[in-house]
Amino acid sequence: MILALVLLPMLAGLVAFGLPTPVLRRGLLVGTALVHAMLTATFWKITPATALNGWLALDAAGLLFLSITSGLFFVASIYAAGYLGQEANRHNTDPEEGLLFDNAPEAVFIGCMLLFLAAMTLVTVSQHFGLIWVAIEGTTLASAPLIYYHRHHRSLEATWKYLLICSVGIALALLANFFLGVAAAHPDRESYPIVLSQLVAHAQDLQTPWLKVACLLFFVGYGTKMGLAPMHTWLPDAHSEAPSVVSALLSGAVLNCAFLGLLRMQQVCVAANLELFTRDVWIALGLVSLVVSAVFIIGQTDYKRLLAYSSVENMGIMAIGIGLGTVGAFGAMLHAVNHSLVKAMLFLLAGNIVARYQTKNILQVRGLLRAAPVTGVLWVAGFLAITGTPPFGPFMSKFTILKAALDGGHIWITTIFLAMLGVIFIGMTTAFLGMAQGEAEKLAVSASNRDRWWQIIPPAALGVLVLWLGLNVPAKLGDVLHQIASTLGGPS
Amino acid sequence: MIATNLILVLVVLTNLKLLGSSRIGSSIRVVAAQGVVLGLLPVVAHVHDLSLRFAVLAVGTVAIKGIVFPWFLFRAVREADVAREVEPYVGYVTSLLSGVVILAISFWMCMRLPMPETLASSWLAPVAIFSIFAGLFLIVSRKRALSQVLGFLVLENGVYTFGVGLAPQSSLLVEAGVLLDVFVAVFVMGITIFHINREFDHINTDQLNTLKD
Amino acid sequence: MNAASFIPLLLALVLSPLLLGVINRTKALFAGRRGPPLLQTYFDLWKLLQKGAVYSRTTTWLFRAGPMLGLAAVLVAATLVPLGNFPALIAFPADFFFFACLLGLMRFFTVLAALDTGSSFEGMGASREVFFSALAEPALLVALATLARQAQNLSLSGIFGQVSGSHWLQAGPVLALVLIALMIVLLAENARIPVDDPNTHLELTMIHEVMVLDHGGPDFAFILYGAALKLWVLAALVVGMIVPATGAPWLNLVLSMGGMFAVAIVVGVVESVMARLRLLLLPQLLVGAGALAAMAFLLGLNK
Question: Which of A151, A249, B119, C258 has a CA-to-CA distance to B59 between 20 and 30 Å?
């Protein structure tokens, strides 16, 4: 069953390269996404059997991230199908510099999207650290052509930076894998395979110096992919130059996959009594990410870059949560869910705005509430959600992390956390509200003045979900979150 | 052990040559030679418990790193019409001296970590770490995109050296996965370089600076 | 200090000009000529000693003393170097460092004499020579330090008295790297191609030749003899690494002398097949030699 979950998108992706008509291709995309989502939904009821001798198994953390990925991909695929239809008809002029450009062939786009889904699925279901690594590298390679969809020099520059920085980071993570293998080895006995369950079970036997170095390298390697500062430098460029639906997936799903890789490492460290060691690194990286993102959000002129830096900020918040023990870990997991939903919604809405106003500059977008009412309302709702305003979901998760910090007596962390959140709130308010309100001077080039259904329904669905999560966390979800947090926690 | 040591010395020599060389064509050949030499390492290092797995891995690595990569990279060189590196951020003599310093640091670092007993040679870990740092140095200090790809290959070679020597328990699936990933990574990077050349008419990454805050 | 330790010194004094003859003969044979006789250098020395010398009015006593002091330095260096199984005349711990310093001293006096003429031509040559020697000296010192560590002995006689076949088997790569580094240093210190062309007298390409351009007569004889001795002692270091020091002493001596001439032939071959490197690339070559020596040192540390 699990194998089917991984192989289905992979095969579909390979097939998509060869399909002749756009309708067939887009149908394949949405169809595969639907089947994938339905399979994932059944896994909530019935736990599937393990595959590949225990290398592929679905535990609590895997299930959570798989659901996020699958759900997000399904919603994004509907948007993408409509988006590709729109892009095929348009005359391609770059809004910022007025140059003409091509788009990548649609077959490449859809094929890479499906392979991207396959790689992300593999990350969530792997229990073997080596396989996790292969899958994360796979997500990098599958998403690079997606970033280069609009073929002009800026997106090319973003693609090159993305490729090189993420590949270097992931190469260091490979070294970390080998170090982990050495930590699991021992002259007297058979060395353990680097499968999560085995490592957790025999955690006391692992050689500590090698494990520590492996942890640090994992932080650098997977942290690069996750977007923690100071390794985040590829993020703003890649997320702002990619088409919005790809940005939504990158922010909402891939960052989480890298986070999952780090969580697996944390689970081993907790079992090996190294939480005190990793806690400091988590919190340090989290705080640096918060500060860096706050600095760059103030005065930002490009709203997609703004959203990208907001992703860095939220990754930082999640990192701080993990560093704060069990309660904080619960908050971080909840935040992972909330952030993915909200960020994906915001990026899809940003896609609507780009299509309508033909610019990415915040100062040139005005009167969104009047020009496109649904998008405008959702945009403001998304802004409120992402900054942590009740009753939306992220409020609960940030509050939980803050509570964990205060309960643990970390006054400095709390102060910096709140101060940076305040700065980010100010920065985002001026941007978002400025875009939403006012007179609509510059109007769309698109034929109709109303948003299409595929532009409205996906973000609206995500928004409703976030609102619902903010009001009430369902019991099943709460159980899964608690389960994960208990394996990650340390001293609170 | 002698053969392993010989291979490791060749790896260090190739790294030093890369640090000091400005010609891209010869650098590609040197990286290919390094890949071939390292492809033979698993067979040589585990000559006592030779198995099909090691042989397959060796053949695959030699084929990909020794034949496919140079062919592909030389195509990119012809397309981009570059023969030499432009003035790098760190000069060649300084790079060479830095390489020696990095080698010293790697040896020092490995004296502090407890080495497993099953090591094929005591030089394996320092040389692997040296390759990693040398690869990072190349990526950071060179301006041409092709040189950065070569630096990435050296980095991966270093990680691979480490894997072969210290973690022989990783299975064929993972190692094949690693090889496949490196192959696809170089492939995608090469295609991107091709596009960069077509778009910008050069492949100097220091001029890719439009996107900033 | 027994009678046997005079033998390396005597051989050096007598046979070193022959090395230059061998090099020139090899180059000539490569070029298809018959070449000068092997003993040509001796005839040159004899001729020069008979001549008078002309001294410029701008020079001082330094100019006259330079060649003599240089020769004195390299003569002392020659007493430090063993050959075959015979220990050197003078041996004490860390004498390899003293050896490198003596070579430096010889170069120092030559440079002083050149600067003393007050001509910019010599100044240019002196600056080039000093620059390249500054790059080559670390290579020499690190290479000798590596050998000292391998042999666990701090004296040149001790080091080369211990090298044997088993050393090569155990630490082959380390010794091979040291050998390559020493060969490059030999080429650099003796102003041979690919570092410097001994036959050129073009202003833009001369390095070592410039400095000795103004000397004539006996001074030039001293310089020529000093160059021959320098080649001999550096070649002795190289040969000492290759020829194992075990076995019958006289057999070793014969093999070592054969090795010296082999080194001279190798230098001649290198001079014939390569062109001189561009001046801009010479630092890379010399730093490369230093890097090889450092690499050998680091690899040798971990044993």
Answer: B119
